[in-house]
Amino acid sequence: MLTVSQVLDQLRTDDSFMRNVTEWHVEPPKPAVYADFPDSVPALLRESLNKRGVHKLYCHQAEVFSAVQRGENVTVVTPTASGKTLCYNLPILARTIAEPEARALYLFPTKALSQDQMLELHGVIEDLKLEINTFTFDGDTPAEIRRKVRKAGHIVVTNPDMLHTGILPHHTKWIKLFENLKFVVIDEIHTYRGVFGSHLANVIRRLDRICRFYGSTPQFICCSATIRNPKELAENVTGRPMTLVDKNGAPSGEKHFVFYNPPVINSQLGIRKSSLKEAGRIAQRFITNKVQTIVFAPYRLMVELLLIYLKRDCQGARVEGYRGGYLPNERRAIERGLKSGEITAVVATNALELGIDIGTLDVSIITGYPGTVASTRQQAGRAGRKGGVSVSIMVASSSAINQYVVNNPDYFFGSPSEMGIVDPNNFVILTSHLKCAAFELPFQKNEKFGVETTEEILEYLQTKGILRLSGDRWHWSSEIYPATEVSLRSASPENFVILNTSDNNRVIGEVDYFAAPMLIHPEAIYIHLGNQFQVMELDWQGKKAYVKEDKVDYYTDAETKADLRVLEIIQVEGALSWGEVSITNVTVLFKKIKFDTHENVGSGKLALPEIEMHTTSFWYEFEPEVGEQLGFGHENLGASLRGLANVLGIVTPLWLMCDPRDIRSISQVKSSFTEKPTIYIYESAPGGVGYAQKLFRIAPEIFAAAGRLIKECPCESGCPSCVGPEIEVGADGKKNVQKMLERALAGMAAKAV
Ligand SMILES: [Zn+2]
User: Fold this and answer.
1) Ligand 1 centre and the CA of 715: distance in Å?
2) Which of 212-222 are b and which e, b meaning 16 or more Cβ less than 10 Å from the residue's Cβ?
3) Which of 129-143, 220-234, 430-444, 633-647 has the lowest mean pLDDT?
4) Ligand 1 mean position, distance from CA 728 (Å)
5) How far is the CA of 302 from the centre of ligand 1 (A)?
6) Mean pLDDT over residues 659-681, rounded?
7) What is the rounded CA–CA span in Å between residue 451 and residue 606?
8) Helices 84-98 & 111-128 angle (0-180, nearest 10)
9) What distance in angstroms lies between residue 271's CA and the mean position of ligand 1's atoms?
10) What is the whole-number distance in angstroms between the Cα of residue 593 and the centre of ligand 1?
11) Which three-class secondary structure string do you get for 367-389?
């Protein structure tokens, strides 16, 4: 049996492995940076922590404590396993000891996570032997417990959806909480971005109104993974100035991070060897040596295939799956097996990265880039025992984003590029919450809800019969109960509901009205928490999609014909602009694309209604003669512009931290608005959530990244991993797009001087 370090040595001298390694990054062990307990930590609390082995604080924990004591709102940036929970539990417990009436609200993005963290908190409180009650309040909380939580819960743990539908509209039952609310904790704040984050910002505005009504002004403590703008994101979500704590004092062992790019087997199509099989082969080298390993895969089908391979190839070691749908006792059995060493490896879907409670292992193998640096780091963080050597290996797939990340290690290891972006003033989102807020408490004349135009919106709602002005207050006058109509995960008031016919038509999710034709058209593969479903029927009138559980080795990608019209310019700078646009979309066909190799394995025609949407867009215009100027002629301009739109569409999500489906790009050889060759990158959410504006500001970075992606792509004249296939962009497509990028970048640099 070899140790982790010995397996690593073996890999390092293995040519067949090393020739596919694009980066081998070693993070040296880091000693802890401690700080003494601040004097204001109550002795009782200190003793309780001492008993649990905490004799000193890490410097970031002490720093958060002091800032909270000064009355500041704090955002702390913490990597995995760095004593994050104590950052907020310490000041909050200290306050609760001094002031038994004090209350705190904890918001976690997922249920599973809050369960884990509850256990830790319960431990500390038990040792304190004080009457401090913590409760989880979510959809599963039984009615009799709910009453208790409302009256006696010092710390209420919940999620944004529950705060939105279960707590704020019933604030009169939560008087104790709102009168005494001292702290709001928002964990994993980097997950609240785009539409979801814009909703949360408005839920917080509603929370603020209710707190003002009951006379409390809570302080906020937010925790974020490493992103480029943690302070800005937290300020936008909470509407408060934040103190940033980003020096981490937690120790870590030596950590190896390897980027592995499977070899090319078809250079024309840009197809590489299967990342699934390569990940399995690499995992096997550790597992057969009884080195504890977790393997992540993006879909449940991949998890199952990996399990079959690893069980077959790793005789003598126990390998288990760890998926959604497992019962708590099955999970506990796996966790126990890992702790005792009886189980050597687990295979899990990416969707579970947050909820997994298995402590830390020696090795984590990540099959395919999980989409953001933050979630990759979270998965990698599953490997890393204090003191010992640990390894994370990311095995890239053929997809364009994977290829960019694996070939540009600086994007990942350098200073963070990802930005959390929200727009709390998105009209659709803001208006939905204004309705909820009016239902909760009448609006006073001149009262502001985040925007100066609050009164105009209230007047508009009055004309719709939703509000009624009486004296100087706006009252709710509709029969419907607004919060249940608003989903925090969507920017459109009319959602499609997805019903699983394999499970008594249970609702498994919702999809935006505007996204429905793309995501849940007939025969689409809908992926939910790593599980695949096939759409059997789309009931357009009834806003329902009927799906069945399915296991196929492909996903679907719908193709839409979009027509874009500029409605209003908001800002212009040289060739760059952003503003409001109208998009008319019709989804005409879908392609079946094989997981992993991204080969096109079939397609189908669709007949769906045309829909119009207003949103925001970024655009870049070229001179009308750009084709001639760059030497490829006007006849090749259309194909080259399309190639440029394709590659910009690929790299943009890496910076804006959004799902690739959250933005779309199109090109027009002669735009009716600019009358020039123009590239548009527009937002998929109605009204937009701030991506277009951000893109306008960081365009040079995005254009430069697009240039790098094309340069590093091994294809000759274009492939789906860069500018698009040759038939779409022409034989010189790749070269032409590069020329256009250089031209655009030179223009932007000249402007910046
Ligand atoms: Zn290529």
Assistant:
1) 4
2) eeeebebbbbb
3) 129-143
4) 12
5) 25
6) 94
7) 41
8) 50
9) 10
10) 17
11) ECCCCCHHHHHHHHCCECCCCCC
User: Using CA atoms, how far apart are residues 206 and 450, in angstroms rounded to an integer?
Assistant: 10
pLDDT at 625 over 70: yes
- Lowest-pLDDT range of 134-148, 268-282, 589-603: 134-148
For β-strands 243-245 and 219-224, DSSP reports them as: unpaired
| Residue type present at position 174 | W
Continuous segment of H or E residues that includes residue 652: helix 637-656
State whether residue 597 is helix, strand or coil. Answer: coil
CA 498/CA 501 separation, integer angstroms: 10
Tokens at 631, concatenated: 């030497």
CB contact set of 434 (below 8 Å; sequence gap of 6+): 449, 454, 457, 458, 461
Pick the CATH number of 34-245 from 3.30.1450.10, 2.30.110.10, 2.40.50.140, 3.40.50.300: 3.40.50.300
CATH 3.90.180.10 fits 4-28+252-413, yes or no: no
The separation between the first and the last C-alpha atoms of the chain, rounded to the nearest angstrom, is: 61
Residue 327 pLDDT level (bands cut at 50, 70, 90): low
CA of residue 368 to ligand 1 center, whole Å: 18
Consecutive H or E run containing 534: strand 531-539
Fold match between 4-28+252-413 and 34-245?
yes
The Cα–Cα gap between 666 and 565 comes to 12
pLDDT reading at 114 higher than 70:
no
Give the start-end residues of each E strand in 225-272.
243-245, 255-260, 264-266, 271-272
- Kindly list the domain boundaries of the chain, sorted by start residue: 4-28+252-413, 34-245, 427-484, 565-587+610-752
Q: How many CB atoms lie within 10 A of CB 324?
A: 15
C-alpha to C-alpha distance for 526 and 532, rounded to whole angstroms: 6
